[in-house]
Amino acid sequence: MIKLKNIHKSFGRQQVLKGIDLTVQKGEVVVILGPSGSGKTTLLRCVNYLEKPGDGEILIGDYHLNCRHAGKKEIHALRQKSAMVFQQYNLFRHKTAVENVMEGLLVVKKLSKEEAYRRSAELLEKVGLGSRLDAYPSQLSGGQQQRVGIARALALEPEVILFDEPTSALDPELVGEVLEVIRRIAAEGITMIVVTHEIGFARDVANHIVFMDGGVIVEEGSPAEVLSRPKEERTRQFLKRITPEPNYSI
Amino acid sequence: MGAPFDLSFIFRFFPKLLDTLGLTLLIVAGSLAAGIFAGFLVALPRMYNVPVLKRFSQVYVSFFRGTPILIQLFLFYYGLPEILKLAGIDISKAPVLFFVIITYGLNTGAFLSETIRASVTAVNRGQIEAAYAVGMTGYQAFSRIVWPQALAVAVPVFSNVVLALLKDTSLAFTLGVMELTGKAQTLGALTQHFVEAYISLALIYLVISLVLERLLKLAERRLLRHEQPVSTGGGRFRLWFRLPRARSYRQLIADANAGKGGAEL
Questions:
Q1: Interchain contact, A134 vs B250, CB within 8 Å
Q2: B81-139: per-residue pLDDT in tens?
Q3: What's the DSSP call for residue B94?
Q4: How many domains does one find in chain B?
Q5: Pairing verdict, β A2-11 and A55-60
Q6: Best of A42, A81, A92 to mutate (most B CBs within 10 Å, chain B)
Q7: CATH code: domain of residue B122
Q8: Predicted pLDDT of residue A241
Q9: What's the whole-number mean pLDDT along residues B2-8?
């Protein structure tokens, strides 16, 4: 289980997160929606301390961290509990696909080379890249790179995988293959927090949807509740904007 | 100047000059080692924005980049013992080579520090974040992710610095070091065949430069192999020889499991 309590974050004088509380059950897929600048990516990055929250508490699995007393050691321990898939993939460019996945297993989990290789190859097979193990990121398409990124996250067997707009940088025709992989691993019961703009994906895959705006959670609930019968005016407006009603005729 | 031109002297000078090649290369290697160390030390406060040290490293870099290396040699050789004498340390008996390597090392360090700083910042922030997200420590992220890539970016500038250093060592003779140029001067004076000595000398510098350039080019290609498109081989540059290809993990595993059947390559 993941629990965020009263997370605050400011950049300079601008308050980006104004006290966020969020609970994610084990095996749940939580999708965070919201207009740009609403703080959703910042919130996600606070979970693994790529952004340092000003105040609040983070609980992942059995690890509890109070953001007021977070030293290097605590942050390092917290990061071992999660993995992240980035918008820009952020693969290690000097390493092949399989080496990218192996890296965490070798350096952080201290597996043997053979074991790390075996598991990494297996995972790449699973995301449909079994034939591209030795390709460098520069030789892979965006969709393929992102799938390597997903395999890299899966390899660590974290409590939760954080997806930061995983399809926003992709060409439209490549979005499908990446969403399909995420859908598949979601079905396996891996806990995920996903920031995305893909409403269709949220409707299909999410157990729980969180709508954020202006640094607060405006509304949350099941996809049916939030997407089909939003209670708040701001949610309605947002949904209207990204899924415009057909107002044309042929 | 001296005796009439005689082509045969050029060839006769070669072996004599080559005797001192070792010393020249020693100066180059020693200065490079000292330079990389100094360059790193000076680049760090600028990369991490350490207030006072940053200022200090800027002054260091401007001094060594803004004054002729000949003057730097004189300042260190004649000046340093005087200054240290005030502090009660006597280094007037230290070998000339010591001063030469210190000066060239610090000079090279000034140029390299800029390169190191630029190369490290050239590795995008996202990969460092990814390393942290995977659970690496700051040191692991630097040594395994940033450093190898920064090195590759740095090689072209690094080769320039190395070649400049090689040629700069020719000034060491002004302090009486018997390296390549010093030897050529002496041979010229002895035989009065100055021009032949200089031609011979120039050829030797040229050949070393070309060899160093090739080696560094190879190092660059090797370090940047991850940025090359799928089809390698051929290409614009024809290499003198091929480096053995990095053995893939596939091969490693296949070897490790030898006899257990079935690993396809």
A1: yes
A2: 988 888 888 887 888 999 999 999 999 999 999 899 899 998 989 999 999 999 999 99
A3: S
A4: 1
A5: antiparallel
A6: A92
A7: 1.10.3720.10
A8: 85
A9: 82
The set of residues, in sequence order, having a beta carbon less than 8 Å from that of B139 and lying 6+ positions away, is none
The model scores a pTM over 0.90: no
Alpha helices, DSSP H, located in B79-193: 80-86, 96-122, 125-134, 138-140, 147-168, 180-191
The answer as to whether B192 is a domain residue is: yes
Contacts of A47 (CB under 8 A, 6+ apart): A2, A4, A58, A60, A82, A160, A162, A193
Q: Is the pLDDT assigned to residue B249 strictly greater than 90?
A: no
**A113 and B252 in contact by Cβ < 8 A?**
yes
pLDDT band at A82 (very low <50, low <70, confident <90, very high): very high
CB contact under 8 A, A114 and B130: no
For B134, which of A88, A98, A103 is closest by C-beta distance? Answer: A103
DSSP-based helix, strand, coil % in chain B, nearest 5:
75, 0, 25
**Helix or strand or coil: residue B214?**
helix
Residue in A with minimal Cα distance to B247 = A134
Which residue bears the tokens 């953001």? A67
Q: Which of A80, A91, A99 comes nearest B135 by C-beta?
A: A80
The span from the CA of B154 to the CA of B120, in Å, is 9
Q: Which residue in this structure is represented by tokens 């992710």?
A: B145
Give a yes or no: residue B247 inside a domain. no
Cβ count near B213 (within 10 Å): 14
Residue B242 lies in a domain: no
Q: Which helix (H) or strand (E) holds A163?
A: strand A160-164
ipTM: 0.92
Q: Does B252 touch chain A (CB under 8 A)?
A: yes
Mean pLDDT of chain B: 84
Flag if A94 and B228 touch (Cβ within 8 Å): no
The answer to whether residue B252 sits within a structural domain is no
Domain span at residue B124?
7-233
> Chain B neighbours among A 112-131 (CB < 8 Å)?
113-114, 117-118
Judged by a CB distance cut-off of 8 A, whether residue A136 touches chain B is yes
